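dumping the sequnces here before i forget
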Amino acid sequence: MAKVRLFIDHPLAAGQAVPLEADQAHYLSGVMRLGAGDEILVFNGRDGEWRCRIVDIRKRGGILEAAEQTAPQRDPPDLWLIFAPIKKARTDFIVEKAAEMGAARILPVQTDFTNSERIRQDRLQAHAVEAAEQCGGTFVPPVGDLLSLAKVLEGWDPSRSLLWADEAAAGEAAPLSDLPGGPWAILIGPEGGFSDAERQRLRALPFVHRISLGPRILRADTAAVAALTLWQAALGDWQRQDS
Amino acid sequence: MAKVRLFIDHPLAAGQAVPLEADQAHYLSGVMRLGAGDEILVFNGRDGEWRCRIVDIRKRGGILEAAEQTAPQRDPPDLWLIFAPIKKARTDFIVEKAAEMGAARILPVQTDFTNSERIRQDRLQAHAVEAAEQCGGTFVPPVGDLLSLAKVLEGWDPSRSLLWADEAAAGEAAPLSDLPGGPWAILIGPEGGFSDAERQRLRALPFVHRISLGPRILRADTAAVAALTLWQAALGDWQRQDS
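..and the predicted 3d for all of it:
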C-alpha cells in the first residue's frame, strides 16, 4: 500500500504524467528507498489525492503516472488565520496547526507589539505543505507575506467577520452560537497583546466579534489552536462530519 | 513592578521568609540581574501569588520575604489529561499546553501503539512548572509516571467520565452539551491511534464518551489542545469568566 504522501504542484488526472523535481526524487529514492513500480500518494491542492506509480526515477528527477483518485478534493471552510509572528519555533507551530485544523489562508501581521520585522514566507509555506502531507489533507493554505495589521484592516472586506481572541473579553464576549455565518477570519495577538490604539480600533470595527479563551493567559500558539477549535466546532466543518 | 514569576515549593504568607535554592538564586541574580530590595512574584501551587522582596541573595542561595498576596489561589476544574507520549518535542508541548489550558493532572500512558518505554517525569514536571510561571497560573498540574493504559483503566473510578477523542467517531459522537458534569479526564491516543483491542475495550466502558475532532486527521498534540478547548468551553471554567 502506498504510504508516502507528497504535495506536487502539477495537474493530476488518470494517466497523467507527473514530473519529479530533484529534491522529490532524492526523497523518494534516497530517503524512502522507492524505485520504479512503487506507488505513492500525491495531491496538488486542487485535484484531490491520487495514487501514482513511479515510472522512472533518477538523481536529478523522475516521472510518476497518476493511476486513480484515492480521495476527493476537500477544501476547508472560508476561514483565515491572522496572527502576529512570535519566536521561530512557535511561529512554525502556528502555521502547522492552522494547516492541520483547516484554515483556508494564513496571514502573518505586524502589530505594535510584534518584534519581528520580517518572516521567511517560503519556510512557513513549506511548513503548511508538510502539515498537509502528514495529516492527509488535500488542501494547502497559502501563507501571506508579512503586512501591518493597520494595512490589513484598511483593505478589509466588511462582509468577512473577524473573530478577535481578546484577553480582556472575559464576561463581555458573545456566545459562539450567536455568531453569523459567512466568511471569517481569526485574529491572534502577539505575546503582550495589542496596544491601546489597536484595541480601540478593533473595538470600533463593525465586523469584529470578540471571544474569550478562558481565565488563564494563553500563549499565542495555544490561543491560535483554541480559537480555531471553537470556530470549527461552532461554525466550521467539525459539525458536518461527512468524512 | 515585579515582572519575574517563580514557582517555589514553600509556604507563602505575609512576612513569611522563603529560602532560595542555588539555581533560583543564580536565575534571579545572574540572569535577571536582581538584587536585595528587588521584588518578584512567587507562587507555590496552593497559596495564590505573592509579591516577595529579595532580602539577601548569594551564589548558593538567598532569602525572600513575602509582602502581600497579588492573586488568589485558582485551581483548575477537575479535569485530567491522559495521553500517549510521542516524540520528545511534542510530548513537552502537550504537557506545556495542558498546564496552560487548565488540566488538574497529567497522566502519560503507554498504549499498544506507543513507542516510548519510558519518560523523564522530572523533565515533564519542570515543563508544567515553567508553563504556569509564564502564563500567570497559580496551580501546577502534577505529571504522573508512565503507566499502561490497561492499568489506568483497571483502577478507574467510574464516577469520573472519560472523553475519548476518537478518530472514528465522526457522525456518531454525542454533542458536548449532552455530556454530564462532575470529574472528567480526556484521553488522547498516539499517532496511529488505538489498537482494535483498545478500541473495543474503550467502547464497552460505561464512563467513556466519544467526541470527534473534525474531518481532518490531527496530530496528537493538536488533538490535545483541541479537546481541552472543547471541554473547557462546554464544561470547564471558560464559561464562568469570573477572572
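DSSP finds six helices and eleven strands in chain A.
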